Amino acid sequence: SAAAEELKSQLDQVQENYENALSHVASLNETERQYEVLKVKYRTAHEVFSACSECQNCGQCGDGWKRFGVKCYYFSTDTLNWTNSRDHCVEKGGHLVIITSEAEQIFVNSSGETHWIGLNDLETEGKWMWVNKQPLTETGVILWYKRPDIPDEPDNWKYEDPSGENCVSLGNESGHTHSWFDSSCSKLKKFICEK
């Protein structure tokens, strides 16, 4: 009948409108995701640019050191435990790296290797401190590794070392080099100094 045809036509129009709305929502979600990605890229670029502009008249870092922003970095080729790495950096006139921005994290991660960084909870379990005694909670950048279905880092795993994991490396032996891992301080790893 004519009424049934009219109703079917209206239902078809509703269905089409609904599908169009779903398509617009998906498009908006993708646009929002791209916007968030761009925001992170902009913030990183801004940090790099700011660091560079602050350092137009900086001197040279010295042999074996690389400049980024206003700091100089030394990427070791040998491996030491965390304590010896810390002491070696002091002997070189610096300290184990203290990561204070996403831009700095990207720079120190550029080698794609695992390195000791200047973060530990040796004094008080669970209270993470940088080698300059600044609490992790005050530096603004926290980049622990996050797992999909088991506890995230730091996990203080005691299977290899009964004293637990009290020192932090950028990356681990499984190839996850973009995040931080608590690790046994006695392990031998490369390390990054800064001055």
Automatic annotation (TrEMBL):
InterPro entries: C-type_lectin-like, C-type_lectin-like/link_sf, C-type_lectin/snaclec_domain, C-type_lectin_CS, CD209-like_CTLD, CTDL_fold. CDD domains: CLECT_DC-SIGN_like (cd03590). One of its GO terms (molecular function) is carbohydrate binding. Keywords: Coiled coil, Disulfide bond, Lectin. Residues 4-31 form a coiled coil. The keyword Coiled coil applies. The keyword Disulfide bond applies. Residues 68-194 form the C-type lectin domain. Gene3D superfamilies: Mannose-Binding Protein A, subunit A. Signal peptide: none annotated. This is C-type lectin domain-containing protein. The lineage of its organism: Eukaryota, Metazoa, Chordata, Craniata, Vertebrata.
